[in-house]
Amino acid sequence: MRHPDQDAQLDLDPGAGSGPAALELQDDLEGDTLREECGVFGIYGHPDAAAITALGLHALQHRGQEAAGIVSYDGSRFHSERRLGLVGDTFSRREVIDRLPGNVAVGHVRYSTTGATILRNVQPLFAELNAGGLAVAHNGNLTNGLTLRRELVRHGAMMQSTTDTEVILHLVARSKRSRFIERYIDALREIEGAYALVSLTNKKLVGARDPRGIRPLVLGELDGCPILTSETCALDIIGARFVRDIEPGEVIVFDENGQDIHKPFPPMAPRPCIFEYIYFSRPDSIVHGRSVYEVRKNFGAQLARESHVPVDVVVPVPDSGVPAAVGYSQFSGVPFELGIIRNHYVGRTFIQPTQAIRESGVRMKHSANRAAIEGKRIILIDDSLVRGTTSKKIVRMMRDAGATEVHFRLASPPILYPDYYGIDLPDRGGLLAATHSLEEMREIIGADSLAFLSIDGMYRAMGEPGRDPANPKFSDHCFTGAYPTHLTDQTQTEPQPRQLSLLAEAS
């Protein structure tokens, strides 16, 4: 959940280094990396609810690696465990699961896009309301979250976190409706932007999806118990059955009486996020009926149709570029080789921000497989390009390993506009494609040639005839500037606050 004022916040983030050197290092290592969304999971009526939720969060770990949390309900009390770090750091321990009794639970894996990574921002967020407790796990970002926050604070609300998800709790609390679900829907009517919500009360498990369906949410079933989660891969890991996608604008409720469905919004043309296919979802997930793996292979094949040059081998930038490189290789007939080997065990805290280490940072995460590329013309395939810093170092690494030509291909169009729905992209000035021509980018990266997937080609790879500007089928605003919702916080003339909080916590 990215906040427009994120860079001005003074919260301390104990999960990362601080200061200019650490920020520069992070940019060096992750400058071309799209930072993940968040992942949500909930299950109702199962005696092992917390353990199953932990397994589901393991499958969703790719969507957020900075923190994880689970809230359960045992029929009389809520129980919460929220920790910084990976799911396995906390929730693989039996004593932790034993502290989460009950047959209903919700969980969340987080990448901080609104508010620093401190414990009070870790979800699910919980509040005690007039009708009982409410825990909320949120994937997405509210584009009017800051505006609503200001209004709530002016009227006496006391915010305990710096995440826009807390706004939802306050909106539910202030609704004058008598039934909980009516209060919940009241809150949804006030928020704008992207959200997939899984919420827990002392009687209900509730799922909700924004009217455009920007963020994904699916319904599954295990032993007759309903599950709500971000991706089908979380169902596969626990042996659950996929039932269907939650529809855009749908609110679904599970309680002792069964299932209840509400559709409180006027029908809108769906605009699911195209980046779920390009980067965020796991390759083995099915998103809106499409295999993510097959779509990414199609992106690669379309790239080969549009911009192939004579080369000896196709080399993916691991890991996200692998399916597209497979598709490129299969369509072009050029052999696929693992010319770059990724080290999965280099963590942020391992690397100290000295100049010498900063220069070799990419080599710690990626190393050249000289046997596969020496003396050969290669074409590198990656999913996207943001700042270009990592791409430049990978091209140099390939040349140092003996590649005679290095061509670079991106399996998505140029990223020209920032995102306000939960993807942590820089403002437009920090996007290489928004500030440089194709030839300038090629020179900066140091490649012999550079090409991106066309926007129409991206749509064709998705099975569409092309992009219809009057009715685009996906949220593709990062490429086109056509945002699917209002951007209320971005249009406010009131100055942004200098910070949202000065409280730092031990965690």
TrEMBL record:
Catalytic activity: 5-phospho-beta-D-ribosylamine + L-glutamate + diphosphate = 5-phospho-alpha-D-ribose 1-diphosphate + L-glutamine + H2O
Cofactor: Mg(2+)
GO term, biological process aspect, one: 'de novo' IMP biosynthetic process
InterPro entries linked to this entry: GATase_2_dom, Ntn_hydrolases_N, PRTase-like, PRTase_dom, PurF, PurF_N
Top-level taxon: Bacteria
Region (Disordered): 482-507
Pathway this chain belongs to: Purine metabolism; IMP biosynthesis via de novo pathway; N(1)-(5-phospho-D-ribosyl)glycinamide from 5-phospho-alpha-D-ribose 1-diphosphate: step 1/2
Keywords, alphabetical: Glutamine amidotransferase, Glycosyltransferase, Magnesium, Metal-binding, Purine biosynthesis, Transferase
Role of this protein: Catalyzes the formation of phosphoribosylamine from phosphoribosylpyrophosphate (PRPP) and glutamine.
Name recorded for this polypeptide: Amidophosphoribosyltransferase
Encoding gene per record: purF
